[in-house]
Automatic annotation (TrEMBL):
The lineage of its organism: Bacteria, Pseudomonadati, Pseudomonadota, Alphaproteobacteria, Rhodobacterales. One of its GO terms (molecular function) is DNA-binding transcription factor activity. SMART domains: FCD (SM00895), HTH_GNTR (SM00345). It comes from the Bacteria. InterPro entries: GntR_C, TF_FadR/GntR_C, Tscrpt_reg_HTH_GntR, WH-like_DNA-bd_sf, WH_DNA-bd_sf. This is DNA-binding transcriptional regulator, GntR family. The keyword Transcription regulation applies. Keywords: DNA-binding, Transcription, Transcription regulation. Residues 12-79 form the HTH gntR-type domain. Pfam families: FCD, GntR.
Amino acid sequence: MAFRAQDLSQTRSAVDTIFEALREAIVKGDLEQGAQLRQEQIAAAFNVSRIPVREAIARLEQLGLVETQRYRGAFVTQLNIADIEEVFRLRALIEAEAIRHAVPRLDSVSLTRARKAATAFHDATDPADWMDRNREFHAALYRPDLQPRTDAILTNLLNLSDRFLRAQLYLTAGQARADREHRQILAACEAGDADLAADLTAQHIRGAMASLLAHLTEQQAPAV
């Protein structure tokens, strides 16, 4: 089973560590859609009982990354094109409004953090790093201003969409386009143009969705 195991027998953060290891493996595609999460194997890999494993899987299920089937166990959720469209459309709506609300309140610390994240995204060569840098960039601009409920909803959507962002950036040569759009969003924020920043953010997310769906549709088309 593909995840980063650790010996947690002497730690108090078993649930958190197992949760993060499994979430990362799912997001990066190391645990593929439909893969079964066998509690006994995970517990042995982390040198713990099944109790923290069960709790970690329950948290993953709350995020929509795992589904439990009666009498069969837990499996990595399989998302179809309709799921992808829904997740990205919701992200576009929520993140656009979040940044519209945040721009008038952005300070030099947040803007500096966003510039650094944008540069790190530009410089990254490993597809696994692109997702983290992309998330850091957007979070720097709007997350400090998010209300707790909005933050929780958006975190859930990001956990779902991250599974596909890596594929979209890598398979569709999307890094260059995303890098350019990051610079445009950042420039609008620096200029204090909240409406433009919101519009660019929505276009950015919808563009990533369209690129990914076009690729998936092409992959699923029957050979002629």
